[in-house]
Design goal:
single chain; mainly alpha
Length: 300
Amino acid sequence: MTTTTDHGLAGHSPRLSEGLPATPANRRRFNWAFIIRIALLVIAAALTLGPVLWTLSTSLRSPSESFKLPPSFIPWNPDFTSYGEVFQQLNIFLLVLNSALVTGLIAVGQMVSAALAGYAFAHLKFRGRGALFSIVLATMMVPVQVTIVPVFMLIRGMGLSDTLLALILPAIPTAFGTFLMRQYFMGLPAELAEAASIDGASPWRTFRSVYAPLAMPGMAIVGILAFNFHWNEFFRPLILTISEQNFTLPLGLVSLQGNLGTGSISVVLAGVVLSMIPALVVFMFGQRALQDGLTAGTGK
């Protein structure tokens, strides 16, 4: 015999029954799910921010307290002498200037080249477009360690060895940026190009006056990601530069490793903290553009 309560539950799907308010069992299940989500977020935040906070904390200890056990996570008496040591041991202003010049020009170059290539693959029709785009995508699978020797030979043949241009020029073409901008342009209406063509606009004028302004959020994503990646880049500058006046900041920080032998890890970490500041500033000012670019089109 079926009771009234059984009829009520049988009329709902499992999803609807989960949405039913009110029963103590449902409230307990909801609370447990909420607590698990919060716990996972706390663990993820601790794993992400923990090393950064530990680096900052250790950089504010005196060298003699760098390896103190048990370590105190909060420096109650912050000591900034390690930061002074960094400025004494490194030409920090030259390193920051070199890194800013290299990463800034690479970011701008990737924004322009990715926008042009992405527009061509999205809206221009030419023979071999699909095959060429497949080749571009395939280059994303090739690690930089595989191509560094041909790049080095090419740079030396151009007479650009041990210059900042040797770091900038090979990094401007970007397969990922081309893919991202192609997808972005494909999300824009093709009718815009047809209307511009009817008005007599050339493909270049259509790109410059119609599509490029609409694609600024996508270009901002390419630029911010390029800046953050190349600001921390170590491998290519290690191979392509020799002179100290052409070193970027990651290469300069390597010279601080001699402090590890004296137990002054706080000096090394002070240099790491200083190197993080420009990237954090770029991210803070570009965060809004990055969010707008990533969420563009999701409301369609």
